[in-house]
Amino acid sequence: MHNVETTTRVLLIDDDQSLAGMLRLDPVDGDRLRIEISDKGEGVEESDLPLLFEAFYRTRRSVRAPGQPGTGLGLAIAARAVARNGGSIVASNGESGGLTVTIEVPRGN
Known about the structure:
This protein has helices at 60-64, 74-84; strands at residues 8-13, 19-28, 32-39, 88-93, 99-106.
């Protein structure tokens, strides 16, 4: 893996070739790396944001939506992995919609 020295952006494309979101890598303070994953969805209710990283938590909207698979474990597992590596993870709604998950971790040697 190469060292990230400048901001790197990767567009995430759906099967129908529409823009689904973006992955962004930013070096922070020389010894940390910020990873932002953004989507173009509806975002989540503000009251749900602090709960997204709890095991088995699913938003009311995702529980009611037919055909929405998931157990509520993905972000909980990610949060524990990030924490074990000395990092932090937060979720926020984007200004123009969608959800952004921001991870900061120490840069490896």
